[in-house]
Amino acid sequence: MTGLIVAMVLAAASPLDPARAAYQSGELAQARTELEALLYPLRLDGEALESEAHLLLAATYHAQEDTSRAEHEAVLGLAASRDTKLDPLLYPPDFITFVERVRTMHRERIAALAAERRRPILVPSPPPVQAPPSAQASPPIPSKSWYLMPFGVGHFQHGQRTKGTMLAVTQGTCLTVSAVSLSTALSLRGRDGLYSASDARTARRLNTSYLVSAYAFAALYTYGVLDGLVFTP
Known about the structure:
Layout: H1 2-12, H2 17-24, H3 28-39, H4 47-63, H5 67-80, H6 93-105, H7 107-117, H8 153-157, H9 161-187, H10 197-229
Helix pairs in contact: 1-10, 2-3, 2-10, 3-4, 4-5, 5-6, 5-7, 9-10
């Protein structure tokens, strides 16, 4: 069971987490290496991840003052997902302004690249499924889909208050530690979006705390889902 939980947690973690942490810690060379390995050749599933990776690589180039490459990656990122909004907690204001300028200057090129990516997929809608009428009314039973909710909601709905309380407390603690670590790390950044030499080590520890707490939250969430959907009759 432990191996299954670990596998599901690793699957839930974003492949961009190491590169994002390196960028936030000011380790630009490491972030660039991580992102280039994921993008060339492409090893990411989904337009959202691909777009975020291109934009994160653009931010890395921009911080290294490689404007031409930053512009190229920004165009690719916007073409992968044209409605992408940059997180002001992750990216510095000057880079956000840079991307908006690229969006305006290369609007036609971005639209052309986005059109090339689109492929029409026609999927017939499945026929409606009609449940057979029940012989007699039965008392309502809470749906097992409640187990997909975090903080032990599913266990409370099914009368398992002890497990529900345990999950609510532990998941809430992990989420709080993760959020506080991330916000503190972000507050240490300078106006250029990078950390000073004196703050780099502290920021790295805070980012590690943020990732560990996030993974712990994911592990507890996975345990709650498995316990409810698989191991509870």
